[in-house]
Amino acid sequence: MSLVSIIIPTYNRAHLIGGTLDSIISQTYTNWECIVVDDGSDDYTTELLEFYSYKDPRIQYFQRPSHLNKGANACRNFGLEKSKGEYIMWFDSDDLMLPDKIEDQILPLKGKLFGYSVSKFDNLINGVLCNENAYKNNEFLVLNGENYSMMNVFWGTIDMLVSRHLIKDIRFNEKLKSGQEYNFFSKLTLSSKFEGIYINKILSYRRVHPDSIQTYQNNNKQDYLLNKYSLFYNTYLECNFFAPKKVKLYMLKNSQSFSFRLALSRNRIPYFLNLIQFLYKELGLFKTLLFLSSITAAYSTGKGYQLLKSSFPIKL
């Protein structure tokens, strides 16, 4: 049986992570290690994880070293460095695995035809299961880097099991506050060229609660816009050397859209001069000038959408 490494960042989730670890211990596939990296919790996480690691030695508990950046992404990268498995699975400290998750996801990877497998989650809100509808295209479209990065197919952080050799030097971007799975999986799948296999089965529950990232993003429009803009800009930057042209244009188009919405809200647009340089490189002078005009109009009059639309890359 191949060793599967499950990597979990956590911060002040002592009231939830016990259920997560119990769901991992209950897996029908038994050859796994679970690496939990604490981001500096000040609740009773340490005591709880010491109990679980004593109870089951397959569970390893680490504190994020102080010289590393704070945040879940740094914890994920540190956990990957500590892991030994032939296969890697990322999970979150507030979510739950169904018993067959690892077994169902590792089986189709044994033939080496696919580099990763993707399952589904349902949302668990106040104890009630709610169906996640984002997977509808996964049944009839190929799971690859182009379709994922252009959001034609979907999976969440907790859905993928991937062969370790595909990861190489790909790491989570530690500057991003949200959307890290899009950035990471775009880099991983676009650079590796491998296809994945879709398992049309709910194998996890994502618990949505007041202090989850999803809830925070929904309640803070300015942060949402800034994070979305930074996500597409940085992903373009990191995928620039190996992504197909249409994928790069898709990322730039989204960077344009969210920068325009930031301008409408009178917010500063990060990396703006660099964005202009990339637009000029990819789109040419005329469309770049149209984009600049749309941003100027947005700041000064609250208008400019038609100029923005005209500055977009060709229809994708």
Structure description:
This protein is an alpha/beta fold and 316 residues long. It folds into 2 domains: 4-215, Spore Coat Polysaccharide Biosynthesis Protein SpsA, Chain A; 221-311, no CATH class. Helix content is 46%, strand content 17%. The chain contains 13 helices and 9 strands. The chain has helices at residues 14-25, 45-55, 72-82, 101-106, 145-149, 164-167, 180-192, 213-219, 221-239, 245-264, 272-283, 285-301, 305-311, and strands spanning 4-10, 32-38, 59-63, 87-90, 96-97, 116-125, 128-130, 160-163, 196-208. Strands 1, 2, 3, 4, 5, 6, 7, 8 and 9 form a 9-stranded mixed sheet that branches. β6 (116-125) and β7 (128-130) form a beta hairpin. The protein is globular.
Distance between the termini: 43 Å
Domain module tally = 2
CATH architecture term of the largest domain: Alpha-Beta Complex
Number of helices: 13
- Summed over residues and divided by their number, the pLDDT gives a mean of 95
Protein name: Glycosyltransferase family 2 protein
Organism: Gillisia lutea
Domain Glycosyltransferase 2-like: 5-110
InterPro entries: Glyco_trans_2-like, Nucleotide-diphossugar_trans
